[in-house]
Amino acid sequence: MKDKINSILSEVKTKISEAANENELQNVKNAYVGKQGALSMLMKEMPKLDAALRPEMGKVLNQAKNQVTELINSKRTELKLKASEVSPDFDCSVPGILPPKFEDQRVAENLAYTGAIKDEIMNIELLSYSLLEYLRDHYPDLLTARYKLDSVSDMPGYEILEKIGKKRGFVISGGEIDTERAANMVMDELRASKIGKITLEIPKEI
Predict the structure, then answer these.
(1) For residues 100 and 90, what is the distance between their CA atoms, to the nearest angstrom?
(2) Cα(126)–Cα(118) distance, rounded to whole angstroms?
(3) pLDDT, tens digit, for every residue of 121-135?
(4) Contact at 8 Å (CB) between 175 and 34?
(5) SS3 for 198?
(6) Contact present, 129 and 156 (Cβ < 8 Å)
(7) CB burial class (10 A; 0-12, 13-18, 19+) of residue 132?
């Protein structure tokens, strides 16, 4: 089993590295650490092992799943940073298109949060990650109250979104969270002032 785990690890590392967007990365996650994923399915083979080997193999398997999760999270952060970059070829005179460069990326994000920049040209999931991290840092009480969450301190945006999706019952086949639906809901509720009275620019950012 150890050889099989190592083989899967080698394969998933390549898949994560090649993922070009959030959808592809989510597919990798589902295929390897989702409920029906390759590593998750190996757990079902544990009873077939010699009893003396199960503790060690269980530990190795859990370590592998944790490693894959960490790699996926790291790649997600990388994709988020790339998504925040704006092509210098964009025409800033066209409505709904980001100007070529903002001195502060927060300005661009704030415009997108409010809908001033069309959702069609944005990755809503990635946008919701940064919004949730902003709310985590500046309005944690409103965030936790609205979505009935426990403490979100130090929690990355994608994890907060998954928890919100789970709370709202946005579960799809295989037990995975429909993060796209959750992201759209969060953005809609922000724009409808359902999360609470929020200021997107605080004094130190002005």
Answers:
(1) 6
(2) 14
(3) 677 888 898 899 999
(4) yes
(5) coil
(6) yes
(7) buried
Q: In this structure, are residues 147 and 118 in contact, taking their beta carbons and an 8 Å threshold?
A: no
- 91 has a pLDDT exceeding 50: no
Nearest to 167 by CA among 151, 145, 148, 195: 148
pTM equals: 0.53
Nearest to 180 by CA among 136, 113, 126, 114: 126
CA angle 170/166/164 to nearest 5° reads 100
Long-range contacts of 63-70 (CB under 8 A, 24+ apart): 64/5, 64/8, 64/9, 64/39, 65/33, 65/39, 65/40, 67/9, 68/9, 68/12, 68/16, 68/32, 68/33, 68/39, 69/33
